[in-house]
Amino acid sequence: MSPADEKITRDQIEGKFREMTGGVTDEVEGAKSQALAIGLAVVVASVAVIYLIGRRRGRRRGTVIEVRRI
Predict the structure, then answer these.
(1) How far apart are CA 1 and CA 19, in angstroms?
(2) First to last CA, the chain
(3) Nearest to 53 by CA among 42, 41, 63, 61
(4) What does pTM read for this prediction?
(5) CA distance 30 to 8
(6) H runs (alpha helix) in the chain
(7) What is the 8-class DSSP label of residue 8?
(8) CA torsion sign, 11 to 12 to 15 to 21?
(9) Could you list the pLDDT tens digit for every one of the 70 residues in the chain?
(10) Cα 35 from Cα 58, distance rounded (Å)
């Protein structure tokens, strides 16, 4: 039999597919963890900036009361 006459089995297709996607799966897992770390850093930085802006605005609008005794 020549290679052209052989029937391709399901196991051969699955094996080749796993071989092709094996490296990609590892890269995707690495990219997910890196994206999660970057996203977390962006959220923490955003919360810090919003807190500082709100704190500054509160100081500028705050009322100052002087109490004097006569």
Answers:
(1) 26
(2) 115
(3) 61
(4) 0.50
(5) 34
(6) 10-61
(7) P
(8) negative
(9) 456 678 889 999 988 888 887 777 777 777 888 999 999 999 999 999 999 988 877 666 666 778 888 7
(10) 34
